[in-house]
Specification:
about 0% strand; mainly alpha
Length: about 325
């Protein structure tokens, strides 16, 4: 074995250790230094008779959230290769761990591409863009609907400002429509649309359905956690407020390890208008982060450690 190869393997081990070690350091730091997390009050909440039933449903939704993402990724990759559910899980969970340190989880794109040939890195990035893009579109549409319903019920902004926001969205849609032919470094919205059309329609249909189901699991995780803390508000206003805060929180640039802090700060404002205790809002955001980020990162760390470049490529399904 050459010295160059040994040095490369040593570098890979160091990178793996940095990713996993850094992930757990950030997790510990966020939990240990958050003075608003009163675990004794949470323990008292668990003493309620219905608590364990609600927790069971929340844990089921936590599993479904990540499982649907795994199925979604398997479905999208089927446009290139036929891969197993187990391999899809490995790629998704390893990507979640790697993305923990990058702005808006952008490291996920590079992590998934490492499981494929270098010549297909662009295809994998494109598929991951579709995977996250449909999730974003659903969050934007549902979030805006929730935001306007919330503002109609509990006016937080003036009517003129709300109209201004709606007008800005309409203008943005028209700008994107007219700019679809503009090319920047060989890329354009038109070319992106043409590439989308080359994929099987069945893949797109499944992707949309799975994305909607995944969004519903996330939103109802929040809803059930508020029920766990005995927050009794009408279902419609609760869901609309959760959708609005999830949309606004996701729109702000952040690192995944700060995700609960960003979404929590936005949620504090909106749920404060509803009269919900700040402690409940912060704790809910933290628990969502623990369930949807920390738990997958813990599992994904194993796949980061055991990552190896594939010696054989999967069998193509559409080529």
């Amino acid at each position: 074995m050459s010295a160059t190869r040994k040095a490369k393997q040593f570098l890979v081990v160091i990178i793996k250790l940095l990713i996993v070690g850094g992930a757990f350091y950030f997790i510990y730091d966020r939990l240990a230094n958050n003075e608003q997390l009163d675990w004794s009050r949470f323990a008292q909440t668990l003493e309620r008779q219905s608590a364990y039933l609600i927790i069971s449903v929340i844990l089921f939704l936590t599993f479904m959230n990540r499982f649907l993402e795994i199925v979604k990724w398997k479905n999208l990759v089927s446009a290139l290769y036929s891969i197993s559910l187990g391999r899809s899980a490995k790629e998704v969970l390893a990507a979640v761990t790697t993305a923990l340190f990058t702005p808006n989880g952008i490291g996920e794109y590079a992590a998934k591409a490492l499981y494929y040939k270098k010549s297909e890195a662009g295809e994998i990035v494109f598929l991951n863009l579709i995977c996250n893009g449909i999730q974003l579109i659903i969050a934007v549409v549902a979030g805006l609907a929730g935001l306007f319903y919330f503002n109609y019920t509990y006016p937080a902004v003036s009517g003129s400002l709300a109209l201004g926001i709606l007008s800005a969205i309409v203008i943005l849609v028209f700008v994107l429509a007219f700019a679809r032919k503009i090319t920047i470094k060989g890329y354009s919205i038109k070319k992106f649309g043409e590439k989308l059309n080359t994929m099987p329609k069945e893949v797109h249909r499944k992707n949309i359905i799975l994305a909607i189901l995944r969004y519903l699991t996330i939103i109802h995780q929040y809803y059930l956690l508020f029920l766990l803390f005995d927050i009794q508000l009408p279902y419609a206003i609760m869901i609309s407020t959760i959708a609005a805060t999830y949309f606004l929180g996701s729109s702000l640039p952040s690192f995944q390890f700060l995700d609960f802090a960003v979404k929590g700060s936005v949620a504090v404002f909106f749920f404060g208008i509803l009269g919900v205790n700040e402690w409940v809002v912060v704790f809910t955001a933290t628990l969502i982060w623990l369930l949807n980020t920390v738990l997958p990162v813990t599992i994904g760390s194993y796949f980061v450690f055991t990552f190896k470049t594939l010696k054989e490529e999967p069998t193509s399904s559409y080529r």
